[in-house]
Design a protein that fits this description.
By secondary structure, the chain is of the alpha+beta class. The protein contains 4 helices and 7 strands, in the order βααβββαβαββ. Helix content is 29%, strand content 39%. β3 and β4 form a beta hairpin. The radius of gyration is 15 Å and the shape is globular. The protein starts with a strand and ends with a strand.
């Protein structure tokens, strides 16, 4: 039995559609936000990763967006509610960190929601500046040097 594996997700693939659905349920629906076609199309040049608990069960996703040759931004990190607090998010972020380092990036940046900040603190991300509002909730700019 294959279980608990992380793989890249190709843009506009069936797995990407499933990732969008999961992101919507976890990140957007609670805020009553929808994705626009333009927002989705902007992701065509980004890197998407999925955490699967079985060959067909997507439990978590994240996206990496290159800012420049040295900095990549982690975004849209979402873990299915039924799979939270099981370490899947930590494994997914750590996988993305290794991927970023191998790809030559020197720093990961992200905007952490207020409730997610302790999660990133545990993973040794540092807070930069004061909290700010994004999509109507408090966020923190955070980073990790690789």
């Amino acid at each position: 039995m294959i279980s608990n594996f992380i793989v890249p997700i190709e843009f506009a693939s069936p797995a990407f559609d499933e990732a969008l659905r999961l992101r919507y349920l976890v990140l957007r629906e609670p805020l009553k936000l929808e994705y626009t076609p333009e927002q989705i199309e902007e992701e065509s040049e980004q890197f998407h990763f999925g955490f699967f608990t079985t060959i067909d069960r997507l439990a978590g996703v994240l996206t990496m967006q290159a800012i420049n040759l040295e900095i990549v931004k982690m975004r849209q990190v979402a873990i299915d509610e039924s799979c939270q607090k099981m370490g899947f998010g930590s494994q997914l972020v750590q996988y993305a960190e290794v991927w970023a380092k191998v790809a030559g990036y020197k720093k990961i940046e992200l905007h952490a929601r207020d409730l997610a900040k302790p999660f990133y603190d545990r993973l040794e991300y540092l807070t930069e500046g004061e909290p700010f509002e994004e999509v109507s909730i408090k966020h923190y700019a955070m980073f990790k040097n690789l």
